[in-house]
Amino acid sequence: MLNKFQNMRKYIINILALMLFLTTNIEVQAQSRQISMKDYGILPNQSVSIAPKLAEALAKIKQTQGKHEKLNLLFEKGTYLFDAKDSPKKVVYISNHDQVGRRSIGILLE
Q: How far apart are CA 20 and CA 15, in angstroms?
């Protein structure tokens, strides 16, 4: 009985070790890139909405993104203005709402 318990314990430890190795290996393989939004003309403390510039920048960035590449978008410290009339629009469904239609999205990430 003790031998079966020891074998089962070794089996479980090996499975857990394998799972840990595989998840760690996947994280190491994922590449990451930092993108300064300043390079796309998106600066803080402006008197105009950054929504159009941000939508354009995100579209350009998406075209260059690798399949498993992680992106870090870096914004300078400050205040950013998003005006609903300049923001991208998308049909979204909100639970417990009966209002259907296109909504303004400040930062549309897809």
A: 9
pLDDT (tens digit, 9 = 90+) per residue, 6-46?
777 777 777 777 676 666 655 545 568 899 999 999 999 99
Strands 32-36 vs 70-74: parallel, antiparallel or unpaired: parallel
Q: Which domain holds residue 24?
A: 1-30
Cβ contact 29:66 at 8 Å: no
What the block records as the tokens of 83 is 């005006």
Q: What pTM does this model have?
A: 0.60
Residues 8 and 41 in one domain: no
Q: Phi and psi dihedrals of 109, rounded to 5? A: -110, 120
